[in-house]
Structures are given as structure tokens and as C-alpha cells.
Specification:
This protein is an all-alpha fold and about 140 residues long. It has one domain: Ferritin, core subunit, four-helix bundle (Ferritin). The protein is about 80% helix and about 0% strand. The chain contains 5 helices and no strands. Helix 1 packs across helix 3 and helix 4 packs antiparallel against helix 5. It is globular and about 50 Å long. The mean pLDDT is about 95. InterPro entries: DPS_DNA-bd (IPR002177), DPS_DNA-bd_CS (IPR023188), Ferritin-like (IPR012347), Ferritin-like_SF (IPR009078), Ferritin_DPS_dom (IPR008331). This is DNA starvation/stationary phase protection protein. It holds the Pfam family Ferritin. Belongs to the Dps family.
Amino acid sequence: MPTELKKILADTYALYLKSQNYHWNVEGIHFQSLHSLFEGHYKDLSEAVDEIAERIRALGLKAPGSFKSFDSLKTITDANENATAKEMLEDLVHSHQVIQQNIIAALEVAQQQKDEVTIGLLVDRLEYHEKTLWMLGAHLAE
């Protein structure tokens, strides 16, 4: 379980940074709505990073906390600050899908271990990513 949680922590931190990058660099006719949307996402992800790291600590392990360790654990790509607004949305969709798949895999391990607290955390994270995918998809449908 700790390995899976560390990967989710690294991906969540990477997505936090990506969302903040896109918040800063988005341009175009949908600037205001996307700027606000991305800000909401990185604020939510900031809280999630803390929750996931604290769960790792509650399991008796050290939480990774450096760019080097996150880079070796993460499975999503870094942001492209030169992307168009549409490319940013598509990249975020893909990143949320990757994290969603990793959460589902971690959830299976937590269920096997009957780790109810981790199950609850992972279900909450899964719900967040599903809702975010819906919202991002709605912006791409324009």
C-alpha cells in the first residue's frame, strides 16, 4: 500500500503544479473561465497532497517531499506552458485519467488489506477526479 500511495502523492503534486502552471499561462477567449477553473483545481489538489502525505505518515512511513523523489514516482507528464488552452484541457484530462487509474489500482490493494481509512481516502480522491474530468470535458465540448 505505501508504494501505491507514494505514487498517488507524486502524481497529485505533479498535477497540482501542472494546474497552477496552466492557471498562470492560459490565454485566449476563454481565459477568465479557465483561469478560475485551474485555480480551483490547484487549490483542491494542494489540500489533497497534504491528506495523502499524512496518510502515508499515519502508516508509519516517511512521505516523499522533493522534486527528485516526486519525479521518480510520478506517472503523469509535466506541463507545457506554451500549450494552447485546448491542449491544456486535453493534457489535464489525460493526467486526471492516469491518476484515476492509479487510484483504482491502489484501491484494490487497500481493499485486499482491509485498510478502511485508506479506502475512504482513495474513494474521495476518485470522486474528485471523476467530477473534474466531467468539468474539463464540458469545456472541451465547446
